[in-house]
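Reopening this ticket.

The earlier resolution said the output was attached, but the attachment link was broken on my side. Pasting everything inline this time so it's all in one place.
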Amino acid sequence: MTPEDEQYRSEVTAGAGGAMTDEVGVITGDLTVVTADRGDGRADVRVQYTDADEWYTLTGSPAPLLPAGAKALHEKVLAAIKAGGGATVPR
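Inline output:
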């Protein structure tokens, strides 16, 4: 697997206050989150309402990869969205 192929996808229910996106502001409810290694030391983080067609950029994306990689960043993103409060990509 090359870094560009490293991608993680999870479903999560946003906590009160939801997740902040660049395109439409805060989204709430059941969300699907994808974190993908760009291969340049950063990752793209996208969110959508689960089973919707539209994807949105989670504010703060692209984000620097953590030393532990894209999976560790993905886990931190999921925790932030579960906490809500207009979650963005954790730094």
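Reporter confirms the inline version is readable. The mean pLDDT is 94. The chain is about 15% helix and 35% strand.
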